[in-house]
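Q: I have 396 residues here and want to know how they pack in 3D. Can you give me a structure?
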Amino acid sequence: MSTSSIVFRKELKDTLRDRRTLITMILFPLLLFPVMMSLSSSFIVSHEVEALARTLRIGVLQGGGASGFASLAGGEEGVEVVPVADAEEGRNLVLADSLDALVAFEEGFDSTVAALGSTGVLVYMKETEDRRIEAGRVLELLDLYDEELREERFRTLGLDPSVCFVLSVETVNLATTQERLADVVGGILPYMFVIFCFMGSMYPAIDLAAGEKERGTLETLLSSPVDRMQILVGKFGVVVLTGISSALVSLLGLYAGIRYASAVPQEFVDMVMSILEPSAILLLFSLLLPLTVFFAALLLSISFLARSFKEAQSYIGPLFPVIIIPAFIGLMPGMRLTAGTALVPILNVSLATRAIIAGKVPAGAMALVYASLAVYAAAALVLCSRIFGRERAIFR
């Protein structure tokens, strides 16, 4: 058995005894996705049920067209029509959430409609995500009123309403299941993978370097008849293992969250299951491995420079924005894997993961991603070995 493997086993055993490492490496990523999926799906369903069941209060500004619309809307179940005499008063009621919407027809609405003309209607409402369902219900009622007026006009003219409809347009979505899934989860999935890779590597790196310096056990290890590089390789292997395990456990958590969340649509479940094939998982792993090597070497380098566990945490804390921002940019619509983005660390992993999920992997750009990740990982390893080889850094 090589000396590096002995150090690796020793460090791994010590790491697995640390509750913080186990929580960040296994428990947190394993539970996060199921909890997120369960909470979000149940919240969305309950919000929709509540919004659809709630009485919709619509203010109708008195004037042309008001009586016809008020009659139609008032006949619908779960709709209350409130007459409003002044537009300013109605807007204030909407702002105060006393009304869901204020409907105001243009001046001369009735005469314009009678003259077979086209007129308009103003709808005042809060178009926020929280009020999306209520806004949709109001617009549906206006569509019904528009349809009623149109049918009445055709009856007056003695025409069949179908003469208006010349084209019957039917769209066929040619996007593959994987392409549609890439739009839905292709951004957030690599974002979570990057975060878990970093977090899974962070605590072991701090504990195996700054933590050992603080406990005084690093000096004992260095005084043993073992080459310094073999010690570094053993420690480095443990940090890489915990980082990659954290990301893979998060994938397992994602599977469990989508597979067993009751409120998740079956079509979405089928879409996710379609990409969890061995080839796709191997490609994802091939991206995460060099990224984790880069994180592990960088975190160990910083941790070796620190004098204590707390100091290492303060050094590593500012790295979070540096990690999160490129991963967040990968969420932006329109971002694609190109020769330029393939060279940007972390962003390239995010975009490459989206390409893998979509099932369209550009060979040239992917080659640049792997090459750049290899260069960054090698540079971080060289930096780590040089810092670990400096007595001044180790015995600060």
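Q: Anything worth noting?
A: Residues 21 and 253 are 17 Å apart (CA to CA). The chain has a mean pLDDT of 77.
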